[in-house]
């Protein structure tokens, strides 16, 4: 009988060390990522996102998505905002300073969202889906904590064809240019630039 593993391992390449995270994870991990500047680790399960402080070795926050199943997460370069994609075509924006509930939920895709991404330097974020599209949004985060983030849809990108019911599998922004790379199930990688 096979059991599904729920262990989270972190590999420190400089010291050639692997350590097991001493946190109890409720549910199977779907995706994970690190905070861009602090020793904070984000792990998403099917229903929520748990935020752990690796130095203090404790749970910092639990983000309640309300989704049927989480598919992907991305952290804003500033570190205080998170987007979460879901298998029901919805995307949630969380402001970590405000609440553990979503600041805004966007219903943009009719099929599963497969990946979400923030740009490192431009106020852009994107989602891609099995509906063979990628959506690009303007997402301005202000330094004034009293001002909420500004979220504006910009563009719907098409160019992939469906293969075995799958569409666009992943999307990543160029590190310096406002360009988006998409990888599709049709074995094509596309570069979209304005």
UniProtKB/TrEMBL annotation:
Q: Name one GO cellular component term.
A: PeBoW complex
Q: Report the GO molecular function annotations.
A: ribonucleoprotein complex binding
The superkingdom of the source organism is Eukaryota
Signal peptide: which range, if any? Answer: none
UniProt cross-references to InterPro entries, sorted A to Z? BOP1/Erb1, WD40/YVTN_repeat-like_dom_sf, WD40_repeat_dom_sf, WD40_rpt
- Please give the coiled-coil regions recorded for this protein: none
Q: Name one GO biological process term.
A: maturation of LSU-rRNA from tricistronic rRNA transcript (SSU-rRNA, 5.8S rRNA, LSU-rRNA)
Gene3D superfamilies from the UniProt entry: YVTN repeat-like/Quinoprotein amine dehydrogenase
PANTHER family reported for this sequence: RIBOSOME BIOGENESIS PROTEIN BOP1 (PTHR17605:SF0), RIBOSOME BIOGENESIS PROTEIN BOP1 BLOCK OF PROLIFERATION 1 PROTEIN (PTHR17605)
Q: What is this protein called?
A: Uncharacterized protein
Source organism per UniProt: Rhododendron griersonianum
